[in-house]
Amino acid sequence: MIYITQLIYVKEGQKETFHQFEDVAIPIIAKYNGRLLLRVRPNGDSFIETAIDKPYEIHLVQFDSEQDLKNFMLDEDRKKFLHLKEQSIKSSVLYKGVKL
């Protein structure tokens, strides 16, 4: 199993565009032996302390293998909507790990 934690920073005024991309991308995860374990949109009170910018969303996703993750990233249907991601996301940070 491989776990992905992603911090997502959305451009000002682009939340709806980001949601359009997510509406396409999230269901595709399951096609590649993946599971969205957690999708959090924290508000200001959710942060106790931070040394980085506060993300718009935090995702925790599990894939059975590294190859499943790669296949998801290369999915042709997902790629058709990458322009929405590029238009709406200012930046993202992706952490890959395994369960200990």
Topology:
Layout (H helix, E strand, L loop, with lengths): L1 E9 L4 H15 L4 E7 L16 E7 L2 H8 L2 H4 L2 H7 E9 L3
Antiparallel strand pairs: 1-3, 1-4, 2-3
Helix pairs in contact: 1-4
Describe the structure.
This protein has a 4-stranded antiparallel sheet with strand order 2-3-1-4. It has a single domain (2-91), classed as Alpha-Beta Plaits (2-Layer Sandwich), CATH 3.30.70.100. Helix 1 packs across helix 4. With 100 residues, the protein is of the alpha+beta class. The protein has helices spanning 15-29, 66-73, 76-79, 82-88; strands at 2-10, 34-40, 57-63, 89-97. The model has no long low-confidence stretch (mean pLDDT 96). The chain is built from 4 helices and 4 strands.
How many beta-strand segments? 4
Give helix % range: 25-40%
Low-confidence stretches: none
Gap from first CA to last CA: 11 Å
| Strand and helix order | EHEEHHHE
> What number is the mean pLDDT?
96
Q: Determine the strand fraction and express it as a percent band.
A: 25-35%
Keywords:
4-stranded antiparallel sheet; alpha+beta; 100 residues; 34% helix; Alpha-Beta Plaits
Summary?
This protein is α+β, with helices and mostly antiparallel strands. The protein is built from four helices and four strands, in the order βαββαααβ. A four-stranded antiparallel beta sheet has the order 2-3-1-4.
